[in-house]
Amino acid sequence: MSSQQKHRIQVPDGLRDVLLEFSIAYLLEQPGDVIDYAVTFFTKLQEDRKTTMITSAEPTSPDESIMSNDEGKSS
């Protein structure tokens, strides 16, 4: 076995996916500065994920929403 095969690095699927998405967006838009573009791209990606997490944490049914609002009120 060669030393190159011994030190092979496994790239996690999530990293591969996000880098592919970034690469495609970069190649399509062809901005002037790759670093500035990367900062903007990954900042937006992070904000979108936070928004998705907040949205998915909200009650999904009207009953849950009513119960959550009523629980905080005293009679």
From TrEMBL:
> Per the record, where are the segments of Polar residues compositional bias?
53-68
- This chain belongs to the protein called RIIa domain-containing protein
- Region of interest called Disordered, as start-end residue ranges on this chain: 53-75
